[in-house]
Amino acid sequence: MIALLIADSASALTVQFVNKRLVVNNQPFLVKGVDESIYPISAFPTEFGACWHDPAQPSGFYCPPPSARIESPNDIDFLVQTAMGWTAALSANTYRTFGKIAARPSPMLSRANQFGVKVIMGYWINYNIDFTFPGTGGQAARQQLINDFVNYITWLRGDPNYSAVLAHGLSNENNQHWCEWANQPHVCVQCDPNAQAAGFYDLVNNMAQLAKQGDPDPRPIIVVSAELGDIGNATRHADDASLPHIDGWGVNAYRGNSFGNLFTDYAARTQKGVIITEFGMDVWDSRPTAASTVGGKDEATQSAYVVSLWDEIKAEYLRIGGVTAGGTVFQLADTWWGVNGPWTIGVTQHNPGGWSGGFPDGILDDEFLGLFERRPGAFKFQDDLYPRQSAFSIRQRFSQP
Question: Residue 275: CA atoms inside 13 Å, Cβ hemisphere, count?
């Protein structure tokens, strides 16, 4: 059935959306992916690069100067090789990143090609921006963002392993943070979320337009939304007519063990295809047990949720008129920096806690979402990863045609 959908496509584009699915080299491509989890124990990402806990520093952490910052500390190629190797071992075909890669040429792309994995290249946009770009320097600041994205895409196209790039994920969940910058104590000004959203979507559409300009073989560019958010909202310039240069959407959704009416609601908002860019379940059940007052790990439930969600994604992909191109599980391995914040020694501890959601204990534990458990290895920044039941279960699903 999927082959019939692309039979009339004579385009020379390497990757494109056709009838809301992705087509790679004129072959259907169901995204079977995992989300990035490259930061080792004691390291954490910031807007500007990686930092890590260092008790010798007065602040307790160390961040290299901007000129030296790369996407992870120490041996980046080792970390990337480990991530890509485990991604391939899961029978996954896609790895999604959240921010720019900086090492040149990129070991991420070369290792991705080595293991037969495609990459959705993330591009982070700071939440704390006034997207109306006011004042005398506003338009210059807006243009600087556009130029940076265009330059980044241009540089990626020059990488000898650019063939590993599947798509570009422009931003991540900015729709959850309109006016967050204005509500901080040192700012505290009036802020119109509609104006902020409209400014943001006008910006990303312009970024995509100029990044593709002159490129005979552009990769699809998607905007990644928290839930359905603003998708289809004309007032906020997030409808199809306002976003002609955005090829599709990414949606991060945590609704429990089912997406419910997500796909039906999505189809009513837009004609663009969607990748479920985050879905999953944490392994930590915070409800007290006879053995522990703080709860413990429940691999069976995590596995059941991940499989149930993937089965719904695949069923929607195969359905005539379906809207999804696939999905990426959040995430490959646990993080150790998600709960206590990056500026504390919490990055050296594996801490339960997170935010409320549709899960058995009512909490999505941010540091326990991995398909693999992360444990300290013999060497700093070279952790050991141990597959959970969910890893074996999703590998079985991903290995199916």
Answer: 35
Burial string for 172-195 (b: 16+ CB within 10 Å, else e) reads bbbbebbbebbeeeeeeeebeeeb
Please report the pLDDT score of residue 7 as a whole number: 41
Edge-first strand listing for the sheet containing 27-29: 15-18, 21-24, 27-29
With beta carbons less than 8 A apart as the criterion, state whether 284 and 297 touch. yes
Rounded to a whole number of angstroms, the distance between the first and last alpha carbons of the chain is: 13
| Rounded Cα distance, 297 and 246, in Å | 40
Name which of 219, 202, 267, 41 is nearest 122 in CA terms: 219
- Return the DSSP state at 219: P
Higher pLDDT, residue 196 or 57: 196
pLDDT of residue 9: 44
CB 366 within 8 A of CB 276: no
Burial (CB < 10 A; 0-12, 13-18, 19+), residue 276, is: buried
Report residue 232 CA to chain centroid gap. 21
Summarised one tens digit per residue, pLDDT across range 337-350 is 988 776 677 788 89
- Cis ω before 28 (30° cut-off from 0): no
Question: Residue 25: what are its φ and ψ, rounded to 5°?
Answer: 50, 45
Quote the CA–CA distance of 61 and 299 in Å, as a whole number.
33
pTM for the predicted model, two decimal places: 0.94
* C-alpha to C-alpha distance for 368 and 334, rounded to whole angstroms: 5
Query: What average pLDDT does this structure show over 158-186?
Result: 93
Greater model confidence, 283 or 358 = 283
Q: Which two tokens stand for residue 122?
A: 């993330």
As a whole number of angstroms, the distance between CA 211 and CA 197 comes to: 21
pLDDT at 62: 82
**How far is the C-alpha of 121 from the C-alpha of 95, rounded, in Å?**
9
Q: Are 347 and 44 in contact (CB under 8 A)?
A: yes
Q: At what angle do helices 389-398 and 299-318 cross, to 10 degrees?
A: 20
Q: What pLDDT sits at residue 397? A: 98
pLDDT at 239 over 70: yes
pLDDT value, residue 72: 45
Domains defined along the chain, listed by start: 2-398 (3.20.20.80)
What CA–CA distance (Å, rounded) separates 37 from 46? Answer: 14
Query: Would you call 40 helix, strand, or coil by DSSP?
Result: coil
